[in-house]
TrEMBL record:
It comes from the Bacteria. GO terms for molecular function: chondroitin hydrolase activity. InterPro entries: 6-hairpin_glycosidase_sf, 6hp_glycosidase-like_sf, UG_Glycosaminoglycan_Hydrolase. This is Uncharacterized protein.
Amino acid sequence: MTGRAEYVDAAERVAAFIESKLKDSFIPKWDYAAAGDQEPLDSSAGAITAYGLVRLARVTKNVRYLQLAHSILDTLSAQCLASPDADSILAHATADLPHGLGIDESTAYGDFYFLKALLALRDAMSNGAAS
């Protein structure tokens, strides 16, 4: 958003790293560097990542970032919505695994960024960014 090329380059390197870690699941583990299939997922990290990707697409005009954000949000919607009687939107967040806090629960910031990402993606797509 500053227009500085080095920040855009850094953001694109982060996006490439994240994409390489997501593989086909589109829901990140609690830590992008975590190894093993038994590591808890973090829906809130997915929501935050999706929002960042939509913003990066706006800056770079690279539709690939919108496609990745869409895949993440689709997967979160299909696999991580909280039950209808819950006080949250997303389930399956991990707040602080090393301290045993908020594992496979919901977070207010996950819900916040999930809604922000959905609205940002809708706006980007309605403005023709996905064509």
